[in-house]
Every structure is written in C-alpha cells, then in structure tokens.
Amino acid sequence: MTEPLLSVRDLKVSYEVGSARIDAVDGASFDVPRGTIMGLVGESGCGKTTVARALTRVIADNASISGGQMLFEGKDLVSLSERQMNALRWREIAFVPQSAMNSLDPVYTVEYQLNEVLRRRGGLDKTQARRRCEELFEMVGIEKGRLSDYPHQFSGGMRQRVAIALALALNPKLVIADEPVTALDVIVQRQILDQLRELQKALGISVILVTHDISVVAYVCDRTVVMYAGKVAESGSMESTLMRPVHPYTMGLRNAFPDLQGAASGTLTPIEGAPPNLAFPPPGCRFAERCPFSIDVCRTTQPPLREIASGHEVACHRAGEATRLRELAARTETWITAA
User: What is the number of other CB atoms lying within 10 angstroms of the CB of residue 327?
Assistant: First the structure.
C-alpha cells in the first residue's frame, strides 16, 4: 500500500486562555493519501481550522502543539526548526484562507502579490515570474490582463480564484483550503469546487478541504474526516463515511445540510445543542449529551478510534449497531426527542 503524503498521529493543540489550558485538538489521527481531496468536516469550534493551521505551524501566539506527530513525507513537521518549516511553506505545503479579501493586500496589485511568492520564495526572475503569473491566471480561469488589478476590483469568487492561484504558485504537494467557499453563493461555490477538483486532478496534488458543510464534502472529496469537540469521530472514504455513517454525529450532520445544488432530499433536521466547553470536557464521548443513542458507558468512557473496515475508522461504543441506528437517525423525531 502506498504511504500517505501526510500522516497525523495523536495531534494535540492547546490554547492558554488566562489560567486555563484548552485542548482545541485532542489526540487527532488521520492520513491524507497522495493525489486525493480529503474533507475535514464538523461544526464551528470542533478544531478543524486549528488542525489546518497547525499543519503549517502558523498558529496563534497563545497556542502550542503540545503532543503528537505530523509526518509529511516522513518528516515530522512538529520537530522541524522554524527555518526548516519555512522552507516547506508555499513550496511543499500551501494554504488557501477562508476570506480572500482579508488575505490579499488591498494596496498592491494581484501581480505584485504573486511576484512576492514567485520571486522571493521561488527564486524566479522577472520574466519567469510574469510568465508564471499568466499561467496561474489561465489555470484558475481569469484573464491575464487582470493581473494589474487590485483585490477590490474582483468579485468574491474571483478573489477566491486569486487565492487558489497564490497557493499553487510554487507547485506544492499539499494544499490546505480553509472554508474556501463559505462566503460565496451556491452557484459560485460549485464553480470554485469544480475548478479545485480539476486542478487537483491535473496537477496530482493532495488537498485538505476544511468545511462545516457536509454537502461540500459529498460533492468534491475522496475521503472524509469528521471532527467533534477536538477529536476525530469518524474517518474513511467519502462513500463509506457519508453513505454508510457509523458515528451518530456523522448521521446527524448528513441530516442537517441540503444538497449543494440547493435541493434537499427531505426535511432538514438540526442537531440541537452545541459542542461542550473544552475547558471542562466531559469524561466520556463528547457527543453523548446531544446523541439520541447514548447509553451509560458513553457518558463515562471515551470510545477509542478503531478501524471497523478497511480504511474506515470510528470512535463510538455502539459502532456494531450502525445499520439499525442509521434507520432511526433518518427520522426527524429521533433528534427532536433527544433534545
């Protein structure tokens, strides 16, 4: 079996907030195979963006990677020096932020900003950089004549394309895209996701797509990692995880979002409540208080993340009952009763 491009093992990322220490990511483990798009999905506050930022080692001043490994082609990103890590950024691992307008400098043209990456980080001369800028704009579907424009002269969708072009500038092996389509309308979302998929296939890169929207994962991803309250609840291929979910949280997410084209297959059912306060995490399964299927052991003992089929892992005490639980989870009254 081919070794994954990235292997995350027992990753822990902590924040110091006053006198409290909060483990925003608490023992997360997953693999990113080469040449795939992996969706990292979950509600706001579940640790997705913290994982994404940790992979680039660009995290908040009050945050630290307090445990685990992030093996990128065999190199542990946790143990690299800042100089070694800086050599990987853009060249090997690139980042697409959620809000392109906030990440692009409003006082410089987009060509100037692309040149910053191409010439300073990539070592290209002026002529090579210009040619590469034109190639990148062609890749993401923008006329090369618009290289001299400023960020505010682009629509939201086009600014996101510029951000993708920046990420692809030095031909990285891994692109991490943090909620790249959240602020866009559903038509533009689909266009951006289609383009991201086309570029991923054409360039053979791997992509981690961070999103709260499980319909986006179903539309574009090959694999899925579902996070809840800092932990991995379930992971596997898109088909096995979303079509045959085993964790009740994944089942609930699937009920709560419409199709990307805007047509729901049935009534949308929310998961009532909110994730727990990670300053005081519960002793058992972190989803237990919101789960319609929780039993006594769920509230006292954390379920381990274990493989239930080839490439499909889940952390649930009732994984063996998944077929029956999926039938119950499809009913709206199951979740209303739980609330």
Answer: 10
Domain ranges of the chain: 6-92+172-338, 103-171
Dist. CA 127–CA 132, nearest whole Å:
9
Q: Whose CA is closest to 168, among 219, 132, 131, 125?
A: 132
CB-based contact 258:264 (threshold 8 Å): yes
Place of tokens 């050599």: 87
Report the alpha-carbon distance of residue 238 to residue 68 in Å, rounded.
26
Residue 21 is encoded by which pair of tokens? 């220490």
Count of residues in the chain: 339
Q: Where are the beta strands (DSSP E) in the chain?
A: 6-17, 20-32, 37-41, 63-72, 75-76, 93-96, 174-178, 206-211, 223-228, 231-237, 306-309, 312-314
Q: Which CATH superfamily is domain 6-92+172-338 in?
A: P-loop containing nucleotide triphosphate hydrolases (3.40.50.300)
Q: For 252-284, write each residue's pLDDT tens digit.
A: 998 877 654 444 456 788 899 999 999 999 999
- pLDDT tens digits for range 278-317: 999 999 999 999 999 999 999 999 999 999 999 999 999 9
d(CA 299, CA 290): 11
Cα distances from 159 to residues 4, 90, 96, 184, 272, in angstroms, run 31, 18, 11, 11, 35
**285, 294 Cβ separation under 8 angstroms:** yes
pLDDT in tens, 80-124: 999 999 999 999 999 998 777 678 999 999 999 999 999 998 999
Q: What's the CA gap between 90 and 116, in Å, rounded? A: 11
Q: What is the pTM of this model?
A: 0.93
At 31, the amino acid letter reads D
Residue 27 and residue 20: Cα distance in Å, rounded? 19
Taking alpha carbons only, the member of 313, 312, 295 closest to residue 304 is 313
| Closest among 326, 333, 221 to 272, alpha carbons compared | 333
Enter the tokens of residue 296.
């006594």
- Are 210 and 48 spatial neighbours (Cβ–Cβ below 8 Å)? yes
Looking from the CA of 146 toward its CB, the CA atoms found within 13 Å total: 17
